[in-house]
Amino acid sequence: MAEVTIFHNPACGTSRNTLALIRAAGIEPHVVEYLKTPPSKEAMRKIVAESGQPLRSFLREKEAVYGELGLADTKWTDDQLLDFMQQHPILMNRPIVRTARGTKLCRPAEEVLPLLK
User: Fold this and answer.
1) Average pLDDT, the chain
2) Are 79 and 45 in contact (CB under 8 A)?
3) Is residue 106 flagged as an active site residue?
4) Are 13 and 21 in contact, with CB atoms under 8 Å apart?
5) Active site residue: 12, 25, 31, 35, which one?
6) CB of 90 closer than 8 Å to CB of 35
7) What is the pTM of this model?
8) How far apart are CA 105 and CA 98, in angstroms?
9) Structural domain range at position 74
10) Using an 8 Å Cβ cutoff, are 116 and 27 in contact?
């Protein structure tokens, strides 16, 4: 199998469970702790495009900074939202998994299973 990458936050239970499912499948993924090393704006744009999902699905609405910045307002363009994600990596929803089979936000953790077969 081609390399598997997980954009991971070790403090997140869903992220830990997803990582455990990947490892249980016998795969040791490339783990990116995105709070320490966030993907670039262009890399995040590519991840979103690969997933086929709207950028807003990759925003973590429960974070205080989301409300503080007024990100629920539809006035923000995708480019502006990507800038906010660069400035505040905690806004990135997780875990995101990339494999040869696709790229997906894995909430709940079991969403990763089709990517591993």
Assistant:
1) 96
2) no
3) no
4) no
5) 12
6) yes
7) 0.93
8) 9
9) 5-116
10) yes
CATH number of residue 10's parent domain: 3.40.30.10
What per-residue confidence (pLDDT) applies to 2? 56
Report the alpha-carbon distance of residue 83 to residue 16 in Å, rounded.
Answer: 27
What is the 3-class SS of the chain, one letter each residue?
A: CCCCEEEECCCCHHHHHHHHHHHHCCCCCEEEECCCCCCCHHHHHHHHHHHCCCHHHHECCCCHHHHHCCCCCCCCCHHHHHHHHHHCHHHECCCEEEECCEEEECCCHHHHHHHHC
Residue reference for tokens 């699905």: 57
**Residue 39, amino acid:** P
Asked if 5 and 30 touch (Cβ cutoff 8 Å), the reply is yes
Number of domains in the chain: 1
CA distance 11 to 16: 8
pLDDT in tens, 80-99: 999 999 999 999 999 999 99
